[in-house]
Design brief:
The complex is a heterodimer of chains A (525) and B (257). With 525 residues, chain A is α+β, with helices and mostly antiparallel strands. Chain A contains twelve helices and 18 strands. Chain B has a seven-stranded mixed β-sheet, sandwiched between helices. In chain B, helix 2 links the parallel strand 4 and strand 5. The chains are: A alpha+beta (525), B alpha/beta (257).
């Protein structure tokens, strides 16, 4: 059906009162024609604006820029724009959103723009809400993405930690009681094929003797009143026939109501550690057994050597009293001296084994004039080492309760040490101090100090000074050890000070009153 | 990036805020004989690779200027004539200061070193105006979708415009457009203007909301070697609305050497 022709009257009414704003402008925006609908929205009359105002004059500033940077180029190049949203300004100053379609025409030799304008307040509101919703959604998406990224980072960190610690994960589905093992577990049950490891597969590998213990640990962790943790170490007999030791730890976690909601655990193959620990333990035991045997041997041999040596000393003494030629007398003297030296060595060794194996040296204390005792010992030493100076200084008076042989041994050992390591051209000084509370014996020499790194070990047996001492010396490195043992047996202690400028001093202090044995105490300075 | 023309010298044309290299379509025919014309879309605009839009790099016009330098080094045969519209005039200025040897002349169409009024300087806008623009961009966030869609009313008198072109023109990622609007309209390069030693032509529109007459006068007074031409034109895109006037002005300037 063809539509009836439009009467001029009707078309004019349709134009003026159309349900949209209609506007015609020149290319520069100058308004040529505007319908009543749009005039009503803008609060103006056609006469106010035609020929004097431009489209851009009706826009807010932001829209003016938009109009120039987007609208104009679009219209010029594209010939039309559709559904562009702009803000028009009412004569009273308030603005309202509109949607605009526009077409560019060339008419009567000039460019004209025809615009249709629709008020879009509701659409605008709707779009704003849409935009806000979209922004919210994007923010949520972003935070979701961030959370996922964080989770993924945490997971890869956990994986890295598990892998570098060689930990394998297992868990329990609490609802069904089913255990689940990660695929990597196949390594410790000796399965070479790929594929998942089922609970049946795993449990079948646990050593029959260990099964009850393993299950018991888990049951306890899952029990309602349990600790929630389990730890068990047990053996696995792998499909490859290899027996492995596995350490299994796990933890139950509860839901909000406190019920057990899940259980996760880790497995670790500790076979090689356990093996290494066992080997180390065995080595230690063997070593200490060997050491004990050696010390016992030293004790037995030393003890048994004493009798024949005594016979040799006695024999040499008897011979010395006879009628001898000069060479014979020299030989007998040498035999006597050598046998004496061997006796002293054996005495040291016996003291050592007594100290080490017999719970310390035994001493017999009696009242003695210590100064006289020390003086005698020093005199004897002087005879043995002619040409060396040994001075004796004494302070205080009185008798002291001590083992006289041991005190003489202390002085002898310390002096021998001082003569061996000290400066040959300076005197060795022995000082005995007696007070109401204690006896102290100090042996001092000049010369190079004891190296610092040696000081902490100087009282250990079989230690010698830095320089290799001359062959034939009676010392086998037990002298200072025995000095310490003697001091300790008297309830005292020995200290050492050694500095380049002061020389070296050993001081043995023995308390005057002593009941029972004290802990060994050694101070080093 | 596109190259048209076959002249011995190179001319680089950079579009302004809002559109892309299609802006130049009415102007390029006038220079095709004398120049090789390099046309491109600023990164973030038109059909450029949006994934290259690094907000840090393009957080100031210097990012775009370094792109111009890359372009000039790679595609120009000897010193090039740089034609920049609107914000690209300032991008060209920054490039020209950084590497004067790459450019023989600058043509600035509707340039502005600063859009916001500041003391005696009249840029044309207040900060509130720029905020209002950003708001308008926001409300056309959805509206743009249809602007980008095939033109429902068609363009009967421009049959040469293909569908493809219509779809890409002025279309870009709205978030990038907003960022670029921020960078453009809040830029202030007044302190750089005096450093450009290369000769330049300022094409100032008689009625341009974006770059008012006062801005052209400021530039002419500050640029060491510049010509100022006022083009009788309403709007910010004289190369679209008055292409022949622009072509004539440019030719006269480029010949006068």
């Amino acid at each position: 059906m063809s539509q009836p022709p439009l009467e001029p009257e009707d078309s004019r009414a349709l134009y003026e009162d159309a349900p949209c704003g209609l506007l015609c402008t020149l290319e520069n925006g100058t308004i040529e024609r505007i319908n009543r609908t749009l005039c009503g929205w803008l609060g103006v009359s056609a006469a106010d604006v035609v020929g004097t105002r431009r489209l851009q004059d009706l826009l807010t500033v932001g829209c003016k820029i938009f109009h120039q940077t987007h609208w104009m180029p679009l219209l010029q190049i594209q010939g039309s724009v559709a559904e562009v949203q702009l803000e028009l300004v009412h004569r009273d100053g308030h603005s309202f959103p509109v949607l605009v379609n526009a077409v560019r025409h060339e008419k009567r030799g000039r460019i004209e723009h025809e615009l249709a304008v629709f008020v879009a307040s509701d659409r605008r509101k709707y779009e704003r809400e849409l935009l806000a919703a979209r922004k919210r959604a994007e923010e949520l998406l972003e935070s979701d993405r961030a959370a996922k990224a964080a989770l993924s980072t945490a997971q890869s960190r956990l994986r890295l930690a598990l892998e570098s610690a060689h930990l394998l994960v297992w868990d329990v589905d609490v609802a069904t009681g089913t255990r689940r093992y990660e695929a990597g577990v196949r390594r410790i049950i000796g399965r070479s094929s790929d594929g998942p490891v089922t609970a049946e597969m795993y449990l079948a590998c646990i050593h029959p003797d260990d099964r009850a213990r393993e299950q018991g640990a888990l049951d306890e962790a899952l029990a309602a009143d349990g600790q929630g943790r389990c730890h068990a170490e047990y053996r696995l007999i792998g499909h490859d026939g290899v027996e492995r030791v596995v350490s299994s730890s796990g933890r139950a976690f509860a839901d909000e109501t406190g019920n057990v909601a899940g259980f996760s655990g880790v497995l670790q193959d500790v076979t090689s550690w356990r093996r290494a620990e066992k080997a180390l333990r065995e080595q230690e035991q063997q070593a200490s057994a060997r050491a004990l045997l050696a010390e016992q041997l030293v004790g037995i041999v030393s003890h048994d050597l004493r009798t024949p040596l005594n016979a040799a000393v006695l024999g040499a003494s008897l011979l010395a009293g006879g009628d001898l030629t000069v060479p014979q007398a020299r030989t007998v003297t040498r035999i006597h001296a050598s046998a004496n030296r061997a006796s002293r060595l054996i005495a040291d060794l016996l003291d050592f084994t007594q100290g080490r194996l017999g719970g310390g040296l035994r001493v017999q204390r009696r009242e003695h004039d210590i100064h006289a005792l020390v003086a005698d010992t020093v005199e004897e030493l002087k005879l043995a080492v002619p040409g060396r100076m040994i001075e004796h200084r004494r302070f205080g008076e009185g008798h002291v309760s001590a083992d006289s042989d041991r005190v003489a041994q202390v002085v002898t050992n310390l002096c021998t040490n001082a003569l061996t390591y000290g400066a040959a051209d300076r005197p060795v000084t022995v000082t005995s101090r007696v007070s109401e509370h204690a006896l102290s014996l100090e042996v001092h020499n000049f010369g190079a100090p004891i190296p610092r790194e040696l000081l902490p070990h100087i009282f250990e047996p079989l230690r010698r000074g830095e320089q290799q001492i001359k062959l034939g010396s009676r010392s086998v490195g037990l002298g200072l050890y025995i000095v310490q043992e003697i001091a300790v047996a008297h309830g005292g202690q020995v200290t050492v000070h050694s500095r380049q400028e002061d020389g070296t001093s050993f001081v043995v202090t023995i308390p005057a009153q002593y009941e029972g044995k004290l802990q060994p105490a050694t101070r080093i300075g | 990036m596109r190259v048209v023309g076959r002249g011995p010298e190179t001319m680089i044309m950079a579009h302004g805020y809002g559109c892309d290299q299609n802006m130049w379509r009415l102007l390029t025919p006038s220079f095709q004989e004398q120049y090789r014309i390099v046309l491109y879309d600023l990164v973030g605009s038109g059909r450029s690779d949006l994934s290259l839009y690094d907000r840090k790099k393009y957080g100031s016009l210097h990012g775009h200027a370094s792109d111009v330098l890359d372009l000039a080094r790679e595609f120009a045969d000897g010193p090039a004539v740089f034609v920049g519209h609107s914000v690209s005039a300032m991008i060209g200025l920054l490039a020209g200061i950084a590497a004067p040897e790459l450019f023989s002349a600058h043509v600035m169409i509707g340039p502005s070193p600063c859009y916001i009024n500041d003391g005696d300087y009249v840029g044309g806008f207040t900060r509130a105006d720029i905020d209002s623009l950003l708001d308008t961009l926001d409300s056309n966030y959805l509206g743009w979708a249809s602007t980008m869609a095939p033109a429902i009313m068609g363009a009967p008198d421009r049959p040469e415009l293909g569908q493809e072109l219509t779809n890409s023109f002025c279309a870009t990622d709205p978030e990038i457009a907003k960022h670029f609007a921020h960078v453009t309209f809040l830029s202030d390069n007044r302190a750089d203007v005096h450093k450009l030693q290369t000769r330049s032509l300022i094409l100032q529109c008689s009625q341009d909301l974006i770059a008012p007459l006062s801005v052209g006068a400021f530039l002419h007074a500050t640029l060491p070697d510049s010509d100022l031409r006022i083009v009788e034109n309403i709007g910010h895109c004289p190369h679209l609305s008055a292409p022949s006037t622009i072509a004539t002005a440019m030719s006269e300037f480029l010949r006068a050497r």
